Amino acid sequence: MDPGNWSTSITGGQSFQYTLMTTILISSLIAMLLQAMAAKLGIVSEMDLAQAIRARTGKALGVILWIMTELAIMATDIAEVIGAAIALNLLFHIPIIWAVMITVLDVMVLLLLTKIGFRKIEAIVACLILVILFVFLYEVILSNPNWGGVIAGLVPTPEAIAQHPVVNGISPLSGSLGIIGATVMPHNLYLHSAISQTRKIDHTDADDIKQTVRFTTWDSNIQLSLAFVVNSLLLIVGVAVFKSGAVSDTSFFGLYEALNNTSMLSNPILISVAKSGVLSTLFAVALLASGQNSTITGTLTGQVIMEGFIHLKMPLWARRLVTRLLSVVPVVLCVLMTAGETEIQQHQAINMLMENSQVFLAFALPFSMLPLLLMTNSKAEMGQFKNSWITQILGWISVIGLTFLNLYNLPSTFEGFGIWNKSLSDILAWITIILILLLLAWTTIDIIRGDRRLAANRVAHPWETTEE
Predict the structure, then answer these.
(1) Along the chain (468 residues), what's the average pLDDT of each consecutive run of 10 residues?
(2) Is residue 64 part of a domain?
(3) What are the residues whose beta carbons fall under 8 Å from the beta carbon of 25, sequence distance 6 or more?
(4) Domain contains 289
(5) For residue 204, which of 105, 186, 376, 462 is within the disulfide window of CB 3.0 to 4.6 Å?
(6) Is the residue at 217 inside a domain?
(7) Residue 446 near residue 61, CB atoms below 8 Å
(8) Domain containing residue 9: CATH number
(9) Cα distance between residue 52 and residue 64, in whole Å
(10) Who's near 29: CB < 8 A, 6+ residues apart?
């Protein structure tokens, strides 16, 4: 539940009303499917996703996939930097450039967390998400949204993946991909396959493994259902809290100001509460909470993929510091490059940087989805716990559908950067599409070959030996 979710969901609501509610629903269902697979892989194979991929692929592909996953973590980190810096600016009036630098100090928070144990970290994350939930539930209740429109928005329509209209620099398709990337984060599949192994399991007992898989799946689905509610509330806030078209600055700055500006709000109750400053302050507090929440998960994931892909161990604080410093660079450059422009232009530039970081997450997703699906479909690896035929069909629909939408949107994404003319943007987009398809084909072939190799030299699982 990071600031990237905020940006994609609130902006989607502001720009396209309730059209993207269906995207939030579908992306939450995909996340449930994939995290159940990730947990099952970790519990049954006793390897996390990074270790399982590395066991099947050559060193070169392993390094490439590691770099892609690291970039996905950095994309999430960019959203965290922007969200936390803006929250500090809004709450304490710290200049944005200094607020960005202060976010580097969250490594001290991480040092503290490493001392208190994993279960307590889980509790802290849960508390931070509840803060966000209650803040937006309160604001949505006050705004009295059109619930008929909300329910109608859950029904899939072609408008949710259309390339027009383009509002505030995004189309419904790019908005949908941003929501998918912010909801089904690729690096979280690596983390989930690792933390599922922290549960107490008797690996000699197939029934105990089955029960652990079932309970872990329920655990994951309950959490993702809560995330669906929060993401839906964010989009509803974008639609219902403000008068339609009233907010010209849809960045976090603009939304904060709008919550203080009674002329922009949609009903008398909101207006009376806004006069006290409570709405805007709660908004900034929840934004700060979401940044710290995703800081924890991003750092834990980084450790998993670094050890799994390239067998390199680094202290958590050092890893966090390196990742955060690298993520700060594009944010600082964005702030400095727009220093001479109007305030709204500066805010929109930062907002677009965050939007594009979430779209990149959707691009990185097939490179973790595809190996996860291939390995959990494998009889040799999973035995009786391999995916059912329904899960396999839904998995392939998710992988192929998301990959197609990403590639279909790529030319307009390149054009949206505004760096090259249309012809050059299209050429670069097609080169990128070919490279992505080749890399996916390479990944598929290596995983299948590696699976056959492991099957030929396979040692029976402890629970299989006990059954015999």
Answers:
(1) 71 84 91 92 88 88 87 80 84 86 72 65 71 75 81 90 80 83 80 81 80 89 87 82 57 74 63 70 77 69 80 73 78 81 76 73 82 89 87 92 84 74 86 91 91 75 58
(2) yes
(3) 154, 228
(4) yes
(5) 462
(6) yes
(7) yes
(8) 1.10.4160.10
(9) 15
(10) none
| Total structural domains within the chain | 1
CA distance 444 to 454: 15
Cβ atoms 295, 109 nearer than 8 A = yes
429 in a domain, yes or no?
no
Q: Which domain holds residue 206?
A: 3-363
Q: Are 54 and 63 in contact (CB under 8 A)?
A: no
Cα–Cα distance, 312 to 299 (Å, whole number): 15
Letter string b/e over residues 89-104, b meaning 16 or more CB atoms within 10 A of that residue's CB: bbbeebebeebbeebe
Residue 461 one-letter amino acid? H
* Residue 243, φ and ψ in degrees, nearest 5: -60, 140
d(CA 274, CA 265): 9
- Using alpha carbons, list the distances in angstroms from residue 311 to 11, 140, 321: 40, 47, 19
What's the rounded Cα separation, in Å, for the pair 175 and 183?
Answer: 12
